[in-house]
Amino acid sequence: LAYSIILYNSDSEFVLTETPVVIRFKDYIPGWIPLPHVLLIFVSLLFSTMAAVEALRRGNKVRIYALLAAVSMLIGGLIMGPFMQKYAFGEWWTGWPWGSDLTDTKTMAAFFVWVIAYIVLRVNPKNRFWPVFAAIVTLGVFVIPHSLLGSEFDYSAGEVVTGR
Question: Which long-range contacts (CB under 8 A, 24 or more apart) does 63-66 make?
Answer without folding.
Answer: 63/118, 63/121, 63/122, 63/125, 65/131, 66/114, 66/117, 66/118, 66/121, 66/131, 66/134
